[in-house]
Amino acid sequence: MSRFVDRVTIHVAAGNGGHGCSSVHREKFKPLGGPDGGDGGNGGSVRLVVDPQVHTLLDFHFRPHAKAGNGKPGMGDNRDGANGEDLVLAVPDGTVVLDAAGTILADLVGAGTTFDAAQGGRGGLGNAALASRARKAPGFALLGEEGQHRDLVLELKSVADVGLVGFPSAGKSSLVSVLSAAKPKIADYPFTTLQPNLGVVQAAGDVFTIADVPGLIPGASTGRGLGLDFLRHLERCAVLAHVVDCATLEPGRDPVSDIDALEAELAAYQPALDTDHGLGDLAERPRVVILNKIDVPDAAELADLVEPELAQRSWPVYRISAVTHQGLRELTNALARMVAQYREAHPKPAARRTVIRPKAIDEAQFAVTPDPAIDGGFVVTGARPERWIAQTQFDNDEAVGYLADRLNRLGVEDELMRLGARPGAPVTIGDMTFDWEPTTPMGDDVPITGRGTDIRLDRSERMGAAERKQARRVRRGLADDTEADE
């Protein structure tokens, strides 16, 4: 038996970008072939697309993790790596995307509507793209960026024109079954309906959809019963229909008190999409009262008593029987007219055009603040410096020198000097902390020594091959520290 799932948490991960390649062209009789390392491919993105054939979030309930393909690394002979394959996830119409904090990121309504759930990482540049007048054959390449990782909450809000509201066992499912071809579960006990049921109704040449929302009870707007989970399925409904059980035998209940209790819950519930669907608050939606089960003699008498009182509220009142089909034709024609009138008065908002706002040239692209955790230290924040840190091979002196040049050109060094940073001050960018040396000149003014090296960086603390071999022997227990001192 299929299950209906209307709220899930998914974990999406975009693909990582491929690393750039550091390569030099080698060919007989061409000793100065130059750099020919290709760029890495971009990582694949994760996208959510509305598919009319999908009606539930059940697939995400069983498979909440989704990852796109990684980009391939670049290769020699100027061959770029292949881009990672995008991952397209089909979602039902009416899906709302929220972040972990509950902020609405997208309202996906309409077939083909797309939302980028996670952006793939960019591929790193190869040394062919990094060649310049000063670095004619760079001995390094840039690393690919990591793809975006996000935890998203998907909520399904049914797209229906008419929403049936009522207490449990009021006959909502039976009404949907006779008005449309839907076959909801019907039984003689409360809370038979555990999921919204949608039906398509044809009346007088018009077609509209009707939703059977699980039964509501007082306190539903605060989480009592099943109402809080399913009240959101009423947010997109243009017309709300109160289905009243006139044949109930429960003491203390009557049609008027049932309607008053449900109206209080609708007024207390605050839809999250007021500004998005354009239909206004639930309390402002058109109402219709459906007095059900009048085929029972006592129910017909009760309907005669309460109908004048309900008519004073300026709500249309219809007496029906889902069993004998009495009054159904009048009801469907009236619902079709109300839906058409309300949709005409509240047209769907026009599709939003993509607006591109380029950043100003002189806009600050980074910020330098004192480090609260390290005395005399500083923290550099900004999209570009943090991205450059992630792209750098820190085991390559030339790559580190290239990073220093990029930060210097951006103005980071000038800002550190303005804030009073001293030589050797710890500076943190992203997840990397290093000692700042303000006297490091620009790369264009420094002769390049060898591939992978930078004369400005005195890496005297780097272990030589003999030292690394001895340290490895010590770790394996084949030697001790005294031999290293000798």
Automatic annotation (TrEMBL):
Obligatory cofactor(s): Mg(2+)
Main location: cytoplasm
GO biological process: ribosome biogenesis
Bias kind Basic and acidic residues: ranges: 453-469
Residue sites binding Mg(2+) per the record: S173, T193
GO molecular function per UniProt: GTP binding; GTPase activity; magnesium ion binding
E.C. designation(s): 3.6.5.-
Domain Obg: 2-159
Binding annotation for GTP: 166-173, 191-195, 212-215, 292-295, 321-323
Subcellular location: Cytoplasm
UniProt keywords, alphabetically: Cytoplasm, GTP-binding, Hydrolase, Magnesium, Metal-binding, Nucleotide-binding
Region (Disordered): 438-486
Domain OBG-type G: 160-340
UniProt domain OCT: residue ranges: 358-438
Superkingdom per UniProt: Bacteria
GO CC annotation, single: cytoplasm
Family under the similarity heading: Belongs to the TRAFAC class OBG-HflX-like GTPase superfamily. OBG GTPase family.
Assembly description: Monomer.
Known role: An essential GTPase which binds GTP, GDP and possibly (p)ppGpp with moderate affinity, with high nucleotide exchange rates and a fairly low GTP hydrolysis rate. Plays a role in control of the cell cycle, stress response, ribosome biogenesis and in those bacteria that undergo differentiation, in morphogenesis control.
Protein name: GTPase Obg
